[in-house]
Amino acid sequence: MSFMKKHLKTLTIALGCSAGAFYLGWQSPTLMGDVFEQQQVAQPTPRFYPLERFIISVPGKEYQHYVLLELALKSSSANAKHQLAEADPLVRNSLMKMFAGKQVDELNKPKNLEQLQQEAKDLLTNVLSANKFAVKIDDVLFTRLVIQ
Length: 148
Known about the structure:
The chain is of the alpha+beta class. The chain contains five helices and four strands; from the N terminus they run αβββααααβ.
């Protein structure tokens, strides 16, 4: 009998521990909070900020040409609208200098468009940063480019 009581007692303790471990494993997210849940960071939605059109003169082989440029800046920064509005003269001046330094042949080739957009993005990123504007430019999109 004592042998049976001893094993029954051991079996009861083992079952109790197993049930307790199962319960804790099942309820751990509830008991311990969100430690076990995967945290999702909300990605800010990119927004587009169109600039007023530019008309820039660029040198050609025989005579001056005019470029009509419309573009938009893409940014995910929360404060982009305000920062870009304040930096508008700086942005426009930087882009005008960049395009005024180009030859018409550089601008007339469709394959150069992506390179020009990247160059404008790099330029604006550096200029805004150097002037303490806390806005990140994700992309520069030319929405219209007319050369005469």
